[in-house]
Protein backbone atom coordinates (compact mmCIF):
# COMPACT_ATOMS: atom_id res chain seq x y z
CA UNK A 1 0.00 0.00 0.00
CA UNK A 2 0.91 3.68 -0.08
CA UNK A 3 2.03 3.64 3.58
CA UNK A 4 4.68 0.98 2.86
CA UNK A 5 5.84 2.83 -0.24
CA UNK A 6 6.32 6.01 1.77
CA UNK A 7 8.20 4.10 4.46
CA UNK A 8 10.42 2.27 2.00
CA UNK A 9 11.31 5.49 0.20
CA UNK A 10 12.63 7.04 3.41
CA UNK A 11 14.51 3.94 4.57
CA UNK A 12 16.61 3.41 1.45
CA UNK A 13 19.39 0.93 2.11
CA UNK A 14 19.27 1.31 5.87
CA UNK A 15 16.45 -1.20 6.26
CA UNK A 16 13.96 -3.26 4.33
CA UNK A 17 10.26 -3.92 4.83
CA UNK A 18 9.04 -7.50 4.56
CA UNK A 19 5.91 -9.59 4.95
CA UNK A 20 7.40 -12.99 5.74
CA UNK A 21 9.95 -14.97 3.75
CA UNK A 22 13.75 -15.01 3.90
CA UNK A 23 15.75 -11.96 4.90
CA UNK A 24 19.38 -11.03 4.14
CA UNK A 25 21.56 -11.34 7.24
CA UNK A 26 22.95 -7.82 6.92
CA UNK A 27 19.60 -6.04 6.83
CA UNK A 28 17.35 -4.53 9.48
CA UNK A 29 13.76 -5.77 9.19
CA UNK A 30 10.61 -3.78 9.81
CA UNK A 31 7.84 -6.35 10.17
CA UNK A 32 4.79 -4.44 8.99
CA UNK A 33 1.77 -6.22 10.42
CA UNK A 34 2.71 -9.84 9.59
CA UNK A 35 1.95 -12.36 12.35
CA UNK A 36 3.09 -15.41 10.35
CA UNK A 37 6.09 -17.16 11.92
CA UNK A 38 9.47 -16.47 10.31
CA UNK A 39 12.27 -19.08 10.07
CA UNK A 40 14.34 -17.10 12.57
CA UNK A 41 14.27 -13.85 14.48
CA UNK A 42 17.04 -11.36 15.10
CA UNK A 43 17.30 -8.67 17.77
CA UNK A 44 17.91 -6.05 15.05
CA UNK A 45 14.44 -6.66 13.65
CA UNK A 46 11.33 -4.72 14.61
CA UNK A 47 8.12 -6.40 15.86
CA UNK A 48 8.34 -10.19 16.31
CA UNK A 49 5.44 -12.02 14.62
CA UNK A 50 4.19 -13.38 17.95
CA UNK A 51 3.79 -9.88 19.35
CA UNK A 52 1.90 -8.82 16.24
CA UNK A 53 -0.40 -11.83 16.67
CA UNK A 54 -1.09 -10.71 20.24
CA UNK A 55 -1.83 -7.17 19.13
CA UNK A 56 -4.09 -8.18 16.24
CA UNK A 57 -6.35 -10.03 18.70
CA UNK A 58 -8.26 -7.19 20.37
CA UNK A 59 -9.42 -9.28 23.31
CA UNK A 60 -5.85 -10.43 23.97
CA UNK A 61 -4.76 -6.80 23.67
CA UNK A 62 -7.18 -5.72 26.40
CA UNK A 63 -6.07 -8.57 28.65
CA UNK A 64 -2.43 -7.51 28.30
CA UNK A 65 -3.33 -3.89 28.97
CA UNK A 66 -5.34 -4.92 32.04
CA UNK A 67 -2.37 -6.96 33.32
CA UNK A 68 -0.04 -4.00 32.70
CA UNK A 69 -2.46 -1.49 34.28
CA UNK A 70 -2.66 0.63 31.15
CA UNK A 71 -6.00 2.52 31.00
CA UNK A 72 -8.34 1.01 28.41
CA UNK A 73 -12.05 0.92 27.67
CA UNK A 74 -14.10 -1.38 29.89
CA UNK A 75 -14.73 -4.78 28.31
CA UNK A 76 -16.55 -7.95 29.30
CA UNK A 77 -17.48 -11.41 28.06
CA UNK A 78 -20.63 -11.45 30.22
CA UNK A 79 -23.95 -10.49 28.57
CA UNK A 80 -25.40 -9.67 32.01
CA UNK A 81 -22.78 -6.95 32.44
CA UNK A 82 -23.69 -5.68 28.98
CA UNK A 83 -27.34 -5.43 30.08
CA UNK A 84 -26.27 -3.44 33.15
CA UNK A 85 -24.28 -1.02 30.98
CA UNK A 86 -27.26 -0.54 28.67
CA UNK A 87 -29.57 0.11 31.62
CA UNK A 88 -27.12 2.77 32.83
CA UNK A 89 -27.52 4.53 29.48
CA UNK A 90 -24.26 3.48 27.84
CA UNK A 91 -23.82 2.34 24.27
CA UNK A 92 -22.09 -1.04 23.99
CA UNK A 93 -19.98 -2.33 21.13
CA UNK A 94 -20.52 -6.05 20.54
CA UNK A 95 -17.33 -7.30 18.90
CA UNK A 96 -18.44 -10.31 16.88
CA UNK A 97 -14.80 -11.08 16.15
CA UNK A 98 -11.65 -10.22 18.07
CA UNK A 99 -9.73 -9.73 14.81
CA UNK A 100 -11.92 -7.20 12.97
CA UNK A 101 -10.48 -4.02 11.48
CA UNK A 102 -11.91 -0.86 9.95
CA UNK A 103 -15.07 -1.29 12.02
CA UNK A 104 -15.75 -4.81 10.73
CA UNK A 105 -17.61 -7.20 13.02
CA UNK A 106 -19.05 -4.50 15.29
CA UNK A 107 -22.69 -4.32 16.30
CA UNK A 108 -23.70 -1.30 18.38
CA UNK A 109 -26.24 -1.83 21.18
CA UNK A 110 -28.11 1.24 22.43
CA UNK A 111 -31.11 0.09 24.47
CA UNK A 112 -31.76 -2.38 27.32
CA UNK A 113 -34.34 -3.97 25.03
CA UNK A 114 -31.76 -4.74 22.31
CA UNK A 115 -30.97 -8.38 21.70
CA UNK A 116 -27.42 -9.07 22.84
CA UNK A 117 -25.67 -11.12 20.16
CA UNK A 118 -23.08 -13.78 20.85
CA UNK A 119 -19.73 -12.01 20.51
CA UNK A 120 -16.01 -12.47 21.15
CA UNK A 121 -16.34 -9.68 23.73
CA UNK A 122 -18.19 -6.43 24.44
CA UNK A 123 -16.84 -2.96 25.20
CA UNK A 124 -18.54 0.02 26.84
CA UNK A 125 -18.77 3.36 25.05
CA UNK A 126 -16.29 5.80 26.56
CA UNK A 127 -18.30 8.97 25.77
CA UNK A 128 -15.02 10.55 24.73
CA UNK A 129 -14.96 13.80 22.80
CA UNK A 130 -11.65 13.15 21.05
CA UNK A 131 -9.78 10.25 19.52
CA UNK A 132 -6.04 10.31 18.86
CA UNK A 133 -3.56 8.02 17.16
CA UNK A 134 -0.17 7.91 18.90
CA UNK A 135 2.76 6.57 16.86
CA UNK A 136 5.61 4.97 18.82
CA UNK A 137 9.01 3.48 17.94
CA UNK A 138 10.98 1.72 20.71
CA UNK A 139 9.24 3.70 23.44
CA UNK A 140 9.58 7.09 21.76
CA UNK A 141 6.71 9.11 20.32
CA UNK A 142 7.28 9.77 16.61
CA UNK A 143 3.93 11.25 15.68
CA UNK A 144 0.35 11.90 16.70
CA UNK A 145 -2.90 12.55 14.90
CA UNK A 146 -6.25 13.88 16.08
CA UNK A 147 -9.26 12.46 14.27
CA UNK A 148 -11.63 15.02 12.80
CA UNK A 149 -14.77 14.92 10.70
CA UNK A 150 -14.34 15.37 6.97
CA UNK A 151 -18.08 15.77 6.35
CA UNK A 152 -21.42 16.38 8.04
CA UNK A 153 -22.38 12.71 7.60
CA UNK A 154 -19.37 11.34 9.50
CA UNK A 155 -20.29 8.34 11.65
CA UNK A 156 -19.76 9.34 15.32
CA UNK A 157 -19.69 5.74 16.56
CA UNK A 158 -16.88 4.25 14.43
CA UNK A 159 -14.28 6.85 13.51
CA UNK A 160 -12.34 5.68 10.48
CA UNK A 161 -11.59 6.97 7.00
CA UNK A 162 -14.47 5.12 5.37
CA UNK A 163 -16.88 6.68 7.87
CA UNK A 164 -15.85 10.27 7.17
CA UNK A 165 -12.87 10.86 9.46
CA UNK A 166 -9.24 11.85 8.87
CA UNK A 167 -6.20 12.77 10.96
CA UNK A 168 -5.04 16.29 11.76
CA UNK A 169 -1.30 16.13 12.45
CA UNK A 170 -0.75 19.71 13.67
CA UNK A 171 -2.41 20.44 17.00
CA UNK A 172 -1.35 20.96 20.65
CA UNK A 173 -0.21 17.76 22.35
CA UNK A 174 -2.08 16.27 25.32
CA UNK A 175 0.40 14.79 27.79
CA UNK A 176 -2.03 12.19 29.17
CA UNK A 177 -2.82 10.92 25.67
CA UNK A 178 0.86 10.66 24.72
CA UNK A 179 1.73 8.80 27.92
CA UNK A 180 -1.08 6.25 27.60
CA UNK A 181 -0.27 5.69 23.92
CA UNK A 182 3.39 4.97 24.60
CA UNK A 183 2.49 2.74 27.56
CA UNK A 184 0.09 0.71 25.42
CA UNK A 185 2.64 -0.06 22.69
CA UNK A 186 5.25 -0.92 25.31
CA UNK A 187 2.87 -3.15 27.30
CA UNK A 188 2.24 -5.30 24.23
CA UNK A 189 5.98 -5.74 23.68
CA UNK A 190 5.85 -3.95 20.34
CA UNK A 191 8.95 -2.27 18.92
CA UNK A 192 6.63 0.06 17.06
CA UNK A 193 2.92 0.61 16.69
CA UNK A 194 0.13 3.16 16.62
CA UNK A 195 -2.25 3.31 19.58
CA UNK A 196 -5.79 4.62 19.13
CA UNK A 197 -6.67 6.57 22.26
CA UNK A 198 -9.99 7.98 23.45
CA UNK A 199 -9.69 11.23 25.43
CA UNK A 200 -12.27 12.64 27.85
CA UNK A 201 -11.66 16.36 28.19
CA UNK A 202 -13.66 16.92 31.39
CA UNK A 203 -11.59 14.42 33.38
CA UNK A 204 -8.32 14.68 31.41
CA UNK A 205 -8.30 10.90 31.13
CA UNK A 206 -7.12 8.80 28.20
CA UNK A 207 -7.99 5.18 27.40
CA UNK A 208 -6.74 2.70 24.80
CA UNK A 209 -9.08 1.47 22.06
CA UNK A 210 -6.56 -0.64 20.16
CA UNK A 211 -2.96 -0.80 18.90
CA UNK A 212 -2.18 -1.06 15.19
CA UNK A 213 0.84 -3.06 13.99
CA UNK A 214 0.52 -1.86 10.36
CA UNK A 215 -0.77 1.70 10.71
CA UNK A 216 -1.77 3.88 7.79
CA UNK A 217 0.90 6.56 7.34
CA UNK A 218 0.85 9.89 5.63
CA UNK A 219 4.16 10.92 4.07
CA UNK A 220 5.26 13.02 7.07
CA UNK A 221 4.37 10.25 9.54
CA UNK A 222 6.27 7.67 7.47
CA UNK A 223 9.33 9.94 7.50
CA UNK A 224 9.19 10.14 11.29
CA UNK A 225 8.87 6.37 11.59
CA UNK A 226 11.87 5.89 9.30
CA UNK A 227 13.93 8.30 11.38
CA UNK A 228 12.90 6.37 14.51
CA UNK A 229 13.89 3.02 13.01
CA UNK A 230 17.27 4.32 11.89
CA UNK A 231 17.98 5.94 15.27
CA UNK A 232 17.00 2.76 17.14
CA UNK A 233 19.24 0.57 14.97
CA UNK A 234 22.38 2.66 15.28
Protein model, in words:
By secondary structure, the chain is α+β, with helices and mostly antiparallel strands. The protein has six helices and eleven strands. The protein has helices spanning 2-11, 49-56, 58-67, 79-87, 175-187, 219-233; strands at 16-18, 29-31, 75-76, 92-95, 106-109, 121-124, 130-137, 140-149, 165-168, 192-200, 205-212. A five-stranded antiparallel beta sheet has the order 9-8-7-10-11. β7 (130-137) and β8 form a beta hairpin. α1 (2-11) packs across α6 (219-233). The chain is globular and about 60 Å long. 32% of the residues are buried. The mean pLDDT is 85.
Number of helices: 6
Describe the sheet with the most strands: 5 strands, antiparallel
What is the CA-based Rg, rounded?
18 Å
Beta-strand percent range: 25-35%
Spatial sequence of strands, sheet with the most strands:
9-8-7-10-11
How many β strands by DSSP?
Answer: 11
Shape: globular
Topology (elements, then pairings):
Layout: H1 2-11, E1 16-18, E2 29-31, H2 49-56, H3 58-67, E3 75-76, H4 79-87, E4 92-95, E5 106-109, E6 121-124, E7 130-137, E8 140-149, E9 165-168, H5 175-187, E10 192-200, E11 205-212, H6 219-233
Parallel strand pairs: 1-2
Antiparallel strand pairs: 3-6, 4-5, 4-6, 7-8, 7-10, 8-9, 10-11
Provide a short characterization of the protein structure:
The protein has 234 residues and is of the alpha+beta class. It has helices spanning 2-11, 49-56, 58-67, 79-87, 175-187, 219-233; strands at 16-18, 29-31, 75-76, 92-95, 106-109, 121-124, 130-137, 140-149, 165-168, 192-200, 205-212. The mean pLDDT is 85.
Amino acid sequence: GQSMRYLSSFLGGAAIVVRGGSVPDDKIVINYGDSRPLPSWDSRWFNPPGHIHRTSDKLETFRWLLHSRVPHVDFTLNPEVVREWLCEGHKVYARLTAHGSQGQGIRILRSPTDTIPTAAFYSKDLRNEDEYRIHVVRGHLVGRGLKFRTGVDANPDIRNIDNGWAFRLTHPPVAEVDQVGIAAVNALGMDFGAADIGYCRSTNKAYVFEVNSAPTMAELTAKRYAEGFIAASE
